[in-house]
Design brief:
Elements (H helix, E strand, L loop, with lengths): L8 H10 L21 H12 L16 H21 L11 H12 L6 H7 L3 H15 L4 H4 L7 H14 L9 H11 L15 H15 L4 H13 L2 H13 L4 H32 L4 H27 L16
Helix pairs in contact: 1-2, 2-3, 2-10, 4-13, 4-14, 5-12, 6-9, 6-10, 8-13, 9-13, 10-14, 11-13, 11-14, 12-13
Length: 336
């Protein structure tokens, strides 16, 4: 993956530094007038910092991953992200450990129907170009699906750890590379005539897409956020089956074959099972061992739900205005 074009002074300075061997540097402060969750410059810079812990970038020295200057710069950007999250997502009150499962279920139920349904639009009304645009957005996460949540495995033990491993094993195809969910999504991209290489569209997606991935990495890379990471994953699993059923039906309506739809069909079945594992075995067991962190679990779930709603609102608003929801006009630009 190549570094994308910068989107402001923060990414310009960061990408200039990353193009050279590790050295001391400082970033200019993000624009205080822009809300952190909508700041393309900030979110792209933070995504690039996090990506050094995943697959990295072509031509970027791998020693940057743990360079002190880079980590200090990332910490500044993370502080902006955390403040933005705190402003946008009310923190649910902590509950007794025994009440966490009910609280999570009620939180998800309250979010159901709160805002526009992107999945319903894609099932019934989207044209092929809009569906392709949706897949471009999702590729930023789905091509490394499960990786951010896997950071939690060494930070857990006992039943909660075993439950997370069980979920992640399915995400990674149970040892069969062709069944990894990231590989199934690549097949969806190929079926839609899109570039399925990792990070191909990083330069095309806006802050509202990048922040979804960044929050997962924030929670995953900090042990203090392990409760939020589990809540985030639980919310993902608890809200996945119906939207993926709709995506599959929408893609079938638009002519997508079984191979292109398999990613969505797989999630309809797998996530119905994962929902119960995540809710009861993973989060329930974690809460029993760490009752002081139930508020963190609920906050992680609330963040996942709120950011998904913001993403849906952005995409549908752009489409209703007759414009692209990506950063450049015309999805066909640069595509096969």
């Amino acid at each position: 993956m190549q570094l994308p074009p910068p989107r402001g002074p923060v990414t310009a300075r960061l990408f200039d530094a990353l193009a050279r061997p590790p050295h001391a540097f400082e970033l200019p402060p993000p624009d205080p007038a822009r809300p952190a969750l909508d700041d393309d410059d900030l979110q792209l810079a933070l995504f690039a910092c996090y990506e050094l812990h995943y697959r990295g970038f072509d031509g970027v020295d791998e020693r940057w991953e743990w360079d002190p200057s880079l980590l200090r710069a990332r910490g500044t950007l993370e502080a902006c992200l955390e403040r933005g999250l705190a402003e946008a997502v009310p923190r649910p009150p902590a509950v007794p450990a025994a009440g966490l499962r009910r609280a999570l279920t009620e939180l998800v139920a309250a979010a159901d129907g709160d805002g526009p349904s992107l999945s319903a639009f894609l099932q019934h009304r989207a044209d092929l170009e809009q569906f392709r645009e949706f897949v471009v957005h999702r590729s930023v996460y789905h091509l490394k699906e499960a990786d951010p949540h896997t950071w939690a495995i060494p930070r857990l033990h006992g039943r909660a750890k075993a439950a997370l491993v069980e979920i992640q094993s399915d995400e990674y195809g149970c040892g069969r590379p062709e069944r990894m969910h990231a590989e199934l999504f690549r097949a969806t991209m190929r079926g839609l005539g899109l570039d399925d290489s990792y990070g191909a569209y990083l330069g095309r997606v806006p802050a509202v897409t990048l922040v979804t991935s960044n929050v997962m990495s924030l929670f995953g890379l900090h042990r203090r956020h392990r409760g939020a990471l589990l809540g985030h994953l639980a919310a993902f699993e608890m809200t996945s089956s119906l939207p993926n059923l709709r995506y599959s039906r929408g893609l079938r309506r638009l002519g997508g074959d079984g191979t292109a739809r398999r990613f969505y069909d797989e999630h309809v079945q797998a996530d119905a099972v994962h929902e119960q594992i995540a809710l009861n075995d993973m989060c329930g067991s974690f809460a029993a061992e760490h009752p002081a962190l139930t508020g963190d679990v609920l906050y992680g779930a609330a963040c996942a739900l709120a950011l998904d709603r913001r993403f849906a609102e952005h995409v549908l608003r752009c489409w209703q205005d007759g414009s692209t929801s990506l950063c450049e006009t015309g999805l066909a630009v640069g595509l096969p």
